[in-house]
Amino acid sequence: MASAASNTPTPYYTKLFNVYYERKAGTERPCYVCRMPTATVLATLNTEDFLYACPKHLTDSGFATAIPDPPVIGPSAADIAKVVEEYKAKEERKQAKEQTQGDDAKEKGKDANKDDSKAKVSATTDSKQLDSPPAPVKAGHRRYALHRALFTMRQRELRMREQAVHAKERSKGLPQVPKGTI
């Protein structure tokens, strides 16, 4: 009995997920629903399946529903404040250490003064970089989920296409029909 379960053929069709990304194509093709020319394409992530759809159908809940973008998770204001305070404390310790060494540096000459000015310039540029807000994340393609009946139909079409390809491959291994007379 266990061997019969292991001999069951595995499905050879591609498993689809009901997440389609809206993209713009260079050429217009007929819409999947109304056959009007459109450049809007709904495609899966790896473009295993795609279909042309008018923008008006994308707003129809009977065709597809928009999947909301996940919330952007970034550092909170408290985290930013904590990092800024740590940075300021580190700079104060560094300056205090430089001042104690500064008495010795005055004796050495102008070389220490140049290093101090360079450190101050770098400290001001670093603080400017920390205070500036991060750049906004660019939004990607809008995501849609097809209506369940439409998605099932798309799965069936893809499965039938793949079955036809596999049937053609299997038929190549079969012997030819005799063409001569007996």
TrEMBL record:
* Pfam annotation, one family: Vfa1
Q: Which domain of life is it from?
A: Eukaryota
Q: Which GO terms describe its biological process?
A: vacuolar transport
Region Disordered, as annotated, extends over 88-143, 160-182
**InterPro entries per record:** Vfa1 (IPR013640)
An example GO CC term for this entry is: endosome
Q: Where is the composition biased (Basic and acidic residues)?
A: 88-97, 103-119, 160-172
PANTHER family attached to this UniProt entry? VPS4-ASSOCIATED PROTEIN 1
Protein name (record): DUF1742-domain-containing protein
Organism field: Naganishia liquefaciens
